[in-house]
Amino acid sequence: MALSLIDAYWEDWLALGLRWLHVIAGIVWIGTSFYFVALDNHLGRPRVAERDVAGESWEIHGGGFYRISKYRVAPDELPEPLHWFKWEAYTTWLSGFGLLVVLYYWNADTYLIDKSVADIPVAAAIAVSLIGLAAAWVVYDVSCLVFKSDVVLGLILLAMVIASAYGASQVFSGRAAYLQVGAMLGTIMAANVLFNIIPAHWELIRAKEAGREPDPAPALEAKRRSVHNNYLTLPVVFTMISVHFAFTYEDDDAWLVLVVLVLIGAWIRHFFNLRHAGRSAWWIPVTAVLAAVGLAIAIRPDEGGGGTPAAPVSDAEAAAIVEQRCAPCHSQSPTQEGYESPPGGVVLETRDEIVDRADEIREQAVLTQAMPLGNVTGMTEQEREELGAWLDGLE
Question: Residue 175: which residues within 8 A CB-CB, separation 6 or more?
Fold first, then answer.
């Protein structure tokens, strides 16, 4: 049962505000991640020798030249003002968690739980989700403390993605499973900033303020965690947009589809990191595209819709299915709890409206079976087959 803490209309506005903030903060955070990793890879020998300067980069943007220098540890005197990059990460995570609460926890029966996957209580589903977020950080952080090889850590992260993707697919609805994995990776990224990167910056500052030589170890670990974050950005961005592409999360092996797409995202990020360092490995994007095409071919839905009913389906029978299973949400005055207006403005109350949306209905209700969300109206396989057969008869 959805938690009706506020009016559904204002809940939509809250979701809009949080999503907008989430996207804006995410753009800024990812932008700084991309920029500073690229900057590190662009650093060359300083043209003019300068005490403790490890490298410099010359750039042109916005009608002017920039000279950026990076110190081996810290300058002799702390500059003022000193610009930090942390609230982008915190705001992205906080707004994303807010969206998770507003959309998936408050409306767990619709978005988080699919009873055909696992018929579990709302409280249990939310608890599993929260435990997953915390566990992701603990497993990753402990692994970083134990293993110093980034290859080993990469394999551990891959194993964690595989395990979490499969586990989430056994507990949550398809779309929620993808977002859960993305939220777990996003939690790792934000926690890296909070618990490692920013504390390392404070160590540099406090050492200079105390007149002692800074310990370079925390800074080196911070850079390592920053690079890890950089590789996780594109996989997390995919999970953010995945809710719009049911053919991925409603596949029979959706967890494996997610793993492949996560790997493709990280692989593409690796190409750009190498390119910023002066190595153009064009075979990387080529193999990434080939992998994406191969995946698309492998998961293409069966155009037959999963079966053929024994007898022809009449207009009245098809209309009854839509009225009972789809119209509770997709009507001018929805009767399904949590909706005050039809989702996406899609209304399915008349034959003409149904026929106009025939391709979308076939895709969402028959082929991918993404709708109804969480199958809250209890649409059966037989009804999907009958609806699919009727839609095929319209052609």
Answer: 111, 242, 243, 246, 249, 370, 373
Q: How many residues are recorded in the chain?
A: 395
What are the Cα distances from residue 137, in Å, to 190, 277, 314? 10, 29, 54
Round to whole Å and give the CA distance between 278 and 177: 38
Whether 91 and 232 share a structural domain: yes
- For residue 16, tell me if it sits in a domain: no
Question: How many helices (H) does the chain have, and how many strands (E)?
Answer: 14, 2
Q: Mark whether 291 and 325 lie in a shared domain.
A: no
With contact defined as beta carbons under 8 Å apart, do 109 and 374 qualify? yes
* Pairing verdict, β 64-71 and 53-61: antiparallel
Does residue 46 have a cis peptide bond before it, meaning omega lies within 30 degrees of 0?
no
Q: How many domains does the chain have?
A: 2
With respect to residue 271, please indicate whether it lies within any of the assigned structural domains.
yes
With contact defined as beta carbons under 8 Å apart, do 51 and 60 qualify?
A: no
* 256 and 123 share one domain: yes
Residue 170 structural domain: 85-298
- Classify residue 78: in a domain, yes or no: no
Domain's final residue, options 273, 298, 323: 298
> Does the residue 304 lie in any domain?
no
The two tokens of residue 328 are: 């509770």
Same domain, 233 and 261: yes
Write the burial class of residue 381 (CB in 10 Å: 0-12 exposed, 13-18 middle, 19+ buried): exposed
Going residue by residue through the chain (395 aa), what tens digit of pLDDT does each one get? 444 556 677 877 888 899 889 999 999 999 999 999 899 998 898 887 788 888 999 999 988 999 999 988 888 888 888 888 999 999 999 999 999 999 899 989 888 998 889 999 999 999 999 999 999 999 999 999 999 999 999 999 999 999 999 999 999 999 999 999 999 999 999 999 999 999 999 998 998 888 888 888 898 999 999 999 999 999 999 999 998 888 899 888 999 999 999 999 999 999 999 998 899 999 999 999 999 999 999 998 776 555 566 678 888 888 888 889 888 889 888 888 777 788 878 888 888 888 888 888 888 888 878 888 878 888 888 888 888 888 888 86
